[in-house]
Amino acid sequence: MNKQFVSKLNAEFSNKRVEAEHDLSVRFAAAMQDQRFGELYTAKRSLENELLRRSSMKLDAGDLRQRLKDATKAYDEYVISHNLDIEAHYQCPICHDKGWVDDKPCKCYMEAYSDLLRKEALISPLPDFNFEDNRLEELGVNEKTQQLYPMFQKFCDNFDYSKLRSVYLSGAVGVGKTTLLSCIANKLIKNGKYVVYVTAFDWSRIVLAKHLSKNDALSELYDSLLQCDLLIIDDLGTEPMYKNVSLEYFLSIVDWRINHGKKTILSSNLTGDQFVKRYGERAFSRICNKAYAYATYIDGIDLRKIKPKH
Fold it and tell me: Which of 111, 131, 204, 268 has an alpha carbon 20 to 30 Å from 24's alpha carbon atom?
């Protein structure tokens, strides 16, 4: 990872953790104004410290453990019965806003890193559409596209167990492909999944920067194309094609993700024949392999009569 971006991100995480712990200290100080709470807390802490002292000196704990158990129970019951909020409100319950778990970056850290790179690289943000929206016709989502919504809601709900690895949605401009993709992405992000959404134009910029070994945000985004739980490339076929770059990287990314059990969704205005002409039969066969793929023309015509597996 880029040192400059890591340094900036580490500072942000440090600030989040400091703020959470400062907020806790303020709430805890307020709780300590309650005399009974203060007595229970002091008694519990005193027993904990004494048990720690005896353990370090290998002394007999006697009935200390039972006394601590009783004191802890009384303390917990008082906290619950009086609705005392004395827990730190970390944004990430996994790493407690440290960004790292067991010397590895937490998922929240990788998502924040990807978001930072996207901002620095001027990548378009994810459109804000959700399955809960009741305005599909107003948004230009045609009837055939709307019929796909239940299937992809189920896909999101069973994401970790779905055998579906690749999706290719083909259809004319304006039938609602981007709206559907946004609903899928936002649903999975809400469920805690690492989702990367890029337009085909942005995807081509990322792989070109990677190919040219540029030390910038664009080239750094390449790893996120591989590592994310779900990669969405929208409007495939509208991007510029770079010789010895576009096709090679496209196949490399698709192959890596399929071989590592990662899920990828592509949308395009291209029909099956047009896709093969632009990207080749190998790419099409990998994306539309009936063992793990679902490919459809938005008018409802299945490209290879492929059935999704959940």
Answer: 111
Q: Which of 67, 101, 135 is the last residue before a domain boundary?
A: 101
pLDDT tens digit sequence for 185-219 = 888 888 878 888 899 999 998 999 889 887 777 77
> How far apart are alpha carbons 26 and 139 in whole angstroms?
46
With a pLDDT cut of 70, the percent of the chain lying above it is 91
Residue 167's contacts (CB-CB under 8 Å, 6 or more residues apart) are: 263, 264, 265, 266, 293, 294, 295
Burial, 223: exposed, middle or buried (Cβ in 10 Å; 0-12, 13-18, 19+)?
A: middle
With residues binned 3-state (H G I as helix, E B as strand, rest as coil), the percentages for the chain, rounded to 5, are 55, 10, 35
Partners of residue 264 on adjacent β-strands: 166, 231
How far, in Å, are 23, 29, 39, 147 from residue 87 at the CA level? 10, 12, 18, 45
The structural domain count of the chain equals 2
- 78 and 177 part of one domain: no
Average confidence (pLDDT) over 263-274:
91
- Residue 142 token pair: 């045609």
Spatial neighbors of 69 by CB under 8 A, at least 6 apart, are none
With 70 as the cut, is the pLDDT of residue 294 above it? yes
The answer to whether residues 249 and 211 touch, using CB atoms and an 8 Å cutoff, is yes
Among the candidates 51, 69, 101, a domain finishes at 101
What is the CATH classification number for the domain harbouring 206?
A: 3.40.50.300
pLDDT bracket for residue 127 (50, 70, 90): confident
Domain that holds residue 249: 121-297
Q: Is the pLDDT of residue 265 over 80?
A: yes
The answer to whether residue 304 scores a pLDDT higher than 50 is no
Instruction: Read off the tokens for 303.
Output: 């490209």
Nearest alpha carbon to residue 227 among 107, 116, 125: 107
